[in-house]
Amino acid sequence: MKPKLAVWKFSSCDGCQLTLLDCEDELLAIADAVEIAYFLEATRNRTDGPYDVSLVEGSISTPHEREQIRHVREQSRILVTIGACATAGGIQALRNTRDHGALKSAVYARPDYIDALATATPIAAHVEVDYELRGCPIDKRQLIDTLMALLSGREPRPIHTSQCVECKLAGTACVMVTQGIPCLGPVTSAGCGNLCPSVGRGCYGCFGPSESPNTQALAAEFRELGVEEAVIRDLFAGFTCAAPAFAEEIKRHGG
After folding, report:
1. Order of strands across the sheet with 131-133?
2. Which structural domains are found in the chain, ordered by start?
C-alpha cells in the first residue's frame, strides 16, 4: 500500500500549500508514490487516517483549531509544519502583544461574532512536531527534499544555518557592514536563496531563527548603527514574531 499523505490548513494565506502545487513535475512523481488522502487545496477526495505524513500550514488562532490540531497529531505518524505561520506564528501573531478585545472592536462591526484566541501561536506550542520547514512561503527545494527523504526512509535535514552563509556563498556584500542597513540575517535561518540582501535590503527574518541565534548581540549592533529601540522591536516583530527567540527579543524592547 502507498503511504498516506495529508495536507492541513489552519490560520494562514495558503501560500505554502500553493508552493506544493507549484512543484508541478515533482508533484506528479510524488503523487505516484503516495496516496494523497487529504488536501482540500488540490482535491475534494478525503480518506480517513491514520496518515503516514501530515504537512501542516498555519498557526493556531481559534478554539476549533486548537482542538483540530490535536486530532491531526493523533492521526499522523510524522507531522511536518510548513511555513512561517505554522513554525513561528505568522503575521497574525502580531496581535499577541496587543489587547485582543480592543483589536476586535476596532476591526469588526460585530466583534461578538468573532470566536478567536487572544494569541496566534505555532503548531509546536500545542503538539509535538517532528520536522519544521521555514519560510514565507516555504522553499520548494526544501519541501521536495523533505518529502523524498520521508518517503524513502531517510532522515530529513532541514537547513538551520544563518542567512549570512547564503550571502557569503552568493558573493553578496553585507548590507550592515557596507551600507549600515539593519539586517536580521545573522540570526535568521537560510533558505530563501539570499533574496533581500542581494537587492540591497536587510533580511526580514522570514525563515525564523537560526540555530542558537544571538539576538541580543545583534540588537546591540543595531544600536551601534543608531537604530531606535522601537525600530529594533519592530525588526524582530515580523512574520516570525512568535518564534521563542524573536518573541523574547521583542519583550526586551518594550513589546
Report:
1. 35-39, 4-9, 51-57, 76-82, 131-133
2. 4-152 (3.40.50.700), 163-252 (no CATH)
Cβ atoms of 239 and 88 closer than 8 Å = yes
Cβ neighbours for 127, distance < 8 A, ≥ 6 positions apart: 69, 70, 72, 73, 79
**Cα–Cα distance, 212 to 207 (Å, whole number):** 14
pLDDT in tens, 177-231: 999 999 999 999 999 888 999 999 999 999 999 999 999 999 999 999 999 999 9
Q: pLDDT by residue (tens digit) across 144-174? A: 899 889 988 889 987 778 999 999 999 999 9
Question: How far lies 177's CA from each of 50, 181, 212, 222, in Å?
Answer: 51, 8, 22, 11
Predicted TM-score (pTM) of this structure: 0.90
